[in-house]
Amino acid sequence: MSQINRIEGGLINRSKKLSFTFNGQSLEGYEGDTLASALLANGHRMVGRSFKYHRPRGIFSAGSEEPNALVQLRTGAYQEPNTRATVTELFHGLEATSQNHRGSLKYDFMAVNDLFSSFLSAGFYYKTFMWPKAFWEKFYEPVIRAAAGLGRLSGQDDPDIYDKGFLHCDVLVVGAGAAGLSAALSAGRAGARVILMDEDFCMGGRLNVETLSVNDQSGSEWATQALAELSAMDNVRLMTRTTAYGAYDHGIVGALERVTDHLISSENKPRQILWRVYTKRTILCAGATERPIAFGNNDRPGVMLAGAVRAYVNRWGALPGKRVAVFTNNDDGWRTATDLAAKGVEITAVIDSRDGQPPVDVPKGAAIVMGGRIVDTKGRHGIRSITLSNGQQIPVDCLAVSGGWSPNVQLTCHQRGRPTWRDDIAAFVPGGELPQGMSVAGAASGNLSLSSVLLNGHDIGNSVVSDLGFTPSKVKASSSEEETTGISAFWHVRESKARAWLDLQNDVTVKDVKLSHQEGFRSVEHLKRYTTLGMATDQGKTANIPALAVMAECTGKSLPETGTTIFRPPYTPVAIGALAGRARGKDFRPSRLSPSHSWAKEQGAIFVEAGMWYRAQWFPRSGETHWRQSVDREVTQTRASVGVCDVTTLGKIDVQGRDAAQFLNKVYANAFAKLPVGKVRYGIMLREDGIMMDDGTSARFAENHFVMTTTTANAVSVFRHMEFCRQCLWPEMDVHLISSTEQYAQFAVAGPNARKLLQKVVDSDHDISNEAFPFMGCGEITVCGGVPTRLFRISFSGELAYEIAVPTRYGDSLVRTLIAAGEEFDVTPYGTEALGVMRIEKGHAAGNELNGQTTARDLGMGRMVSKKKDSIGNTLSEREGLNLENGLSLVGFRPVNRSEELKAGFHFISKGNTANMANDEGWMSSVAFSPNLGHSIGLGFIKRGSERLGEIVIATDPLRGGEMDVEIVSAHFIDPEGERLRA
Amino acid sequence: MIINHPLLGPRDAAEFVYKGDASLINRPNWQADDAAELFHEYLYLRDNPAGQHRELWYHEQGDRSWLIVTRNTLTHEISNVEFARDVALAERPKK
Question: What is the largest CA-CA distance in chain A?
């Protein structure tokens, strides 16, 4: 049987049949269907099981407010749980399955929960699983977790691509219903740059689902015409399938566009795009959402919102039932009866909670019950009959319920605006302060008749563009026939004995709200958290107001006094993938590659991430099976002859200006003003609080020109700090800074044969002999026949060493040239591990030592902090607490038993003391195996360290275990006199 | 948020790095008798107003200028944006 409930009419394309499956069953629908309309057309009333009680549930609404019809789409890695069937556009090959049942949808084993419902009331978890305490982790939690949730994640990486984008416009119109189209027409005709977005794939909003006419056309025809006019305007952008999900600071609006969700495959296009919309003004035309009335067993499949019932009939030609009753407290509910009757559907009854006369002509054959109440319903897998308060039973297979319409005020509240109550429409409307630049038009502002919506949208559109300086067009607003919109607030049927649902998604009943009140959770925010009312994917769009009304009744307060919970973004769910965009996995942040990267890769280098940089960690040679073999060899070869290491990643800052020297004198703690041209000096930078910030070198190439290096890790923050000093602290100084980290490729050439190697590449007119180019010298030279080069004679390894910098484009070529030229010296490239070993052997501090807690004094460089000048951190470095007699100092350590391996993170305890916090005297910051000494060595901080050389202390690691005796030694393990440097 | 850069016009706040209270531009005199006390106040004692706040932002993803932004901490409304350098120069004691 195919599409047994499909009738004539609607906005579907009957010439395009689409096949899809639901729980494996092959079904057919048409282009223009949603999954929900296609399921209804195929006679499927029951589409899922409820969250807590596993009750049979059907399609409840026809829009994004859907609490019930949550299904799982697609399979494998593309599987997506908890999607709303009501907004899922049907496509050929769609695979959907129902959720939250064990066994089949119809016979769910978990439905037993419903029998225990009296134990599962509000706060059940809080009350029940408190004891015995030990049971929580081992028993309760695993059981609850297994039973919880609705759909299932695939457990695989999301294979789709998500993008982010920025949009700019004068006027953003959110929602393309009658108000939105009118507003967009006004703004577009005036010449403003307009973006009109709508969450639906077919713009028009309620115009597509109502039978009201506009300008003597059908609503949908008028919408089509308006859209044609808008799309012909160059200044208007139409965005379907796009939800404005949040209103943010300064009028920025977040929007999610579902680009390929309606296609079987994304075909490498982004599936969704998260837009950040910069707009001068926003006109919110988000419409209104119908809410239900609570009565006994009002959650059965077939019980639907009245507006949704006629939407399925009018827009999709899909019949939710063949014998339909209406239960309403307002005139609009009657429209469902008259619309359906006009299509020949049997209306069995209209029950209006209000006394008096029917507001419209009574559909033929329908029982009319004014002042009526439904107290209960029957039907195991779908509604079969309703029971009125007078005991009368009426057979139905669909019940259309209307408790009135609530304007969609969500976005107006995202900047903490609170809505205000209007008694005449029994609803909250936007109130107080709206987000910057926002106006509200149409049903969202409480205009509930089509004629007022059209006029309001038109007028607001015009007034917004005139505010922006445009001249509104003279075209008049479109008009519609008059309609009655009377309502009398009615929230739940008190006479009902059976459970009456308020929140279908979270299984919250009237009783739960009353219980919450009884137990003291009376504020709406407490009510929400205690009962879970209004949580999850629908955020209580249909549930909140009726539930608040029940709470108001309990407390004896009015609804406006009771208030609403705070609305926060997103309006409808946004996938985490869309928020992440492309920033995931390896692309979470950019990768910075040094100019020697491809060369190093050819050498088989192992890379390590240093910030965003990839640096060669070591270069394994054939036969080397353990990293230590490679690193030991690199160190040995460098110290024996020569090695080359890429040091491009160190920050480079070009400092120029008449006051450059004075400026450096202020940002470095040690003196720089008198550094001669052609010399390099090691400098330490403090933070203003006296703690070490960074260290590095600065080379003076000319009177007014310095080149500074910083550590790799602090390159960005040091530059930022120096700009702060330059612009904010000493603005009168003539000094300018440019980051040149990426402009120069820089290599360390270290080892006794470093000079000999360099002499082979340096052009002959430059003398780099020890006399002409001594230790701590610098100069501008050329290499390889004219390549401009900066040469620095500085050493991190402790060997005779240089750093050679060429413009980045020569970097790859230079490293290849150096290695080729070094062949006769058995040159080795070395990576960051060997670099680390050599600096520890020399006792040089690095990131592990400059950890943001240590001072120059701790590092043994206290005397470098000049007291004769002002510099950042100078004054506060003299604080008592940073200058304690038993303060820390950086020293070297070696294991008493040389075969033992030191560990970074060891804490030091004096011999004879117990290893506890009170006796803690410091910690090991860096360790390495020294191939030159043949044992493990370390650097660390220990109280009064420099006075304790030769003392044996306990090094202990309570976290990972292990304890050993270590000897405090000088941090200079190799060449303490520095003779190699000056060779 | 959008920061209206004096030269570059409206820019997204994501291009900027925040530092804090604009009073950080008034660094004390290191030679004052009570320099330690002054620096302590300068570095640690700041107002945390609910309302108008003058604060430092750095246009790191832009022209690298330091700006003084006057922002209402309750509403994020930005009422004034100036170059910190201009403010610092204007506030210099006249020599």
Answer: 114
